Amino acid sequence: MSNFSRRSFLASMAAAPLIPFSEWFEKYAQAAPPMVRYNATSINGQAMLKKYAKGVKTMMATPSKDPKSWVFQWYSHWIQGPQVVQPTKNNTINSIYGAAASPWKTLAQAMWDECQAHNGQNENYFLPWHRMYVYFFERIVRSVTDATFTLPYWNYSVAGSAHGVIPKQFRLQNDPVFGPLFVAKRNKPPGHPDVNAGQPIDQGQPDSPLSTIALSECTYSPVGPKQGFCQRLDSGLHGQVHVLTGGTQNMGAVPWAAGDPIFWMHHCNIDRLWASWNKAGRQNPSDLPFLSKQFTFADENGNKVMATIKDFLKIASLNYTYDAFEPVPACPAVIQRAPDLVNHFVKPGDPVQLTPGAVRVTLERGDSAQAASSTTLADKVRRLRAGRRLYVIVKNLRADLDPGVLYHVYLELPSATSPAKGSANYIGTIHFFDATGHDHDATPGDGPEKFFSFDVTALAKRLLAARKLGEKPTITIAPTGKPASDAKPVVGDISFVEG
Q1: Could you tell me if 124 and 310 are in contact, meaning their C-beta atoms sit under 8 angstroms apart?
Q2: Which range of residues forms the domain containing residue 51?
């Protein structure tokens, strides 16, 4: 355990300059032995959870001003509060630190509300920023427990009885050891499985929202209609676990998410999946703006560290690994260029206002010459050239508050058919986890556009064979459970494209 007192921690922060990560790592971390992060359900993982509970208890008892406190680390992700009425970042900082300048206040101004990329920042920063965040958080927990501590990961995608079940150590409300890991605001009936009772978070959902299908992506960034690994993992598995663990003042909303101790197990697993993808030979971006992007963090000894993305792309270089990695499907030897997209059908008019029930949208024919040559969706499916695919693209999602539920999307769902019985028409899942109006001063980045993408080629061919394709495609969007009444979710764009 660290011998640094709060006074020495503050003094070091006042005196220390902002240290480049490479210099910091050589001085403080390079000589450390490699550390292993374990599955939370393994024997080693359960031993680490016992230490984690002790660390969480210590951090929660530490004053919020202190960078080693639970609140400070939570707010580095996002400041808590309802998104609509949340005070500005500066107001929150002044309420905690007062109006006068101080080293810790300066650090909070640099670190708080920096979660990437949930407010228009470059989507490619999502994975490296969270790796940095988890890395320094782990060191802080280690400093208040013991030098052998590593963060376990929650493998919710595993098959069998542990699938989707939050580890039992997070469900023991009054336990003298694991009580600090319990949070009452996780999802529960009605409308949701009872997370704290050990029910799978994806119980009752169609398809598999806990699938690791993002590992099949061959590029890090989007290529044409394909989201790429980073965005597909973020908008798919990552966001769906947040919403399914929920609720709107817990994991299901960005400002509250990092207040739940399970958050760190979730993001440890997201990091493991990225490491698995890289281990299979998949390549991260190599452009200078990405590699040189920097974020500020504080280590467990009060050093202010300027972390650069290029230094966080390989876990072996950071002296840690995982006890197991996921298999990654093979990709073609040569990744083809982005296909030319043809907008065949698009949503007309104003954004789609979602309701507590199912909303049905009829798409109109696109305005390009290529689109005009096929007057119906059935025509387009019949004439689809070899190697071309059909996609439904959903983007420009906004909400006043996170609705707290997933939304399922269907193609040509008959009006008399309940979404619950619409598996034959099911496309996929969308959510509003990072689509709310957070109080944030960040300038939007210039990274890839965020969107949901669903390959519907096989579904469209099956519906064509059954003579169930209309002249114009209809898309149905239906919530699972009851959305928050004041969420006001909106879908800006829906299109049916070929690529």
Answers
A1: no
A2: 6-322
